[in-house]
């Protein structure tokens, strides 16, 4: 199966692309051969200024269109652009430019502005009468117009990306399809060696020969270490093509997830599992899926792996507190093929230090199903929602069971990230809660114990100590509300929850962005005052100003390194 996806070129070693078809922004269109509709739209909709981020936006949109069977939704478009940062144009014209590719109701954008009883136009953002809109009109034939509205001449997905253009679309090169997989051993500058085994036994053999070799999957951590932290690794073993590390299986006791599984793959898999299994079994799956949404942009999730994230053991890892709280186990294999299992909660030993010996590697993760009345929640607070590392994050799980006619907490796990060198378990709090029924009366004592369990010294790395401390409490409070609400709903508890607090249990969602820019343009026969496409906009659409690649991945690759 051929997979088409975006990746960040700055984090993709050339070696790792052997056998893939690389499509860059120049490849999809330029001034001589004609622009791709995606490039054209961005220019027309004034979606660039300095042009630095523009190729990245173009390739993200291109990849989404090429890998979707149907026109994407507006949410999908915004999701696919989330890993791209713009510092000058602003996102409105960029999103506006691409909205024509979405399955959407064009009238939303082309409709006349709302009017109040007096016939005054109402500003969509303030809800108040808006004088500039009175003087302008959304009719494209008028000389005076709202630029962001004008661009929404109804334009269907098919007209843009359908037959007329698809004849020109790049295809996966047949010669690459015919090539066969071969293990790789490449020698680079300064004695660097890059191995790519195709079987677990080859990988274990290489590990036994080079106990100090760096294993690589997505390179999204190692790439940062070598580029920005002066790390040097002489021998690198890419484990991306070892099938045993790519397991994704539904088993009797839970999910079996190979360590080289990419986060984007995991998202897709979890969505399917959640759709197919009972909700009581998949509370952990759901929490991990929701946390992955805020993990990073699409280009990172397409390459970053489950095992890479675990073994990096970053104190702010978004997933490690969840693996611990959900009771996941890690399978570890040594060079003699011996497999041992360790609980995720025992795996993180110190700052970026894990329970792996030099002759061992992480094989897979076993994620247990949740049981009836077992609830799992994820938490993350960062400076901003998308593409940011956590100030504090957490994973929490609580199992409620019936004992002598009472429904009480029988098992609980509360784990915080971002508060110490390793994810911290709130052990005293957990012990206190076992055997209790949750109600408001427990909260004061729980908060006091949480402060003891998760102490943040005044000079704790990361600063903002008071804020981060309050986050640890508020995450628990949200979890308390969530579990109590669920039990109340099932009629098993009757705890009076304050209605004012209930918004705290709703997961964050945001509607698709809609914005308009209102200004008056008076045509005087010159360019002044006209919303004209700037001269370099077309060039920016196709220059490699940002390292954004798209790769066609194909399982059949051969001995040679290809690059185009
Ligand atoms: N750069 C970014 O923008 C960004 C954003 C979010 C997350 N991330 C990173 O994503 C990473 C995810 O993984 P990646 O695949 O890119 O990592 P990677 O290939 O960079 O490897 C990360 C570390 O994990 C080790 N490792 C990988 N697989 C292993 C295995 N099976 N057994 C033992 N050790 C193993 C590697 O040797 C390395 O030390 C996270 O750790 C995080 O740092 C990066």
TrEMBL record:
Domain FAD-binding PCMH-type: 187-372
Needed co-factor(s): FAD
Keyword Calcium in annotation: no
Record's catalysed reaction(s): hypoxanthine + NAD(+) + H2O = xanthine + NADH + H(+); xanthine + NAD(+) + H2O = urate + NADH + H(+)
GO MF term (any one): FAD binding
Xref: PROSITE patterns: FAD_PCMH
Pfam family, one: CO_deh_flav_C
Domain of life from the UniProt record: Eukaryota
Keywords tagged on the record: FAD, Flavoprotein, NAD
Enzyme's top EC category: oxidoreductase
EC number of this enzyme: 1.17.1.4
Protein name stated in the entry: xanthine dehydrogenase
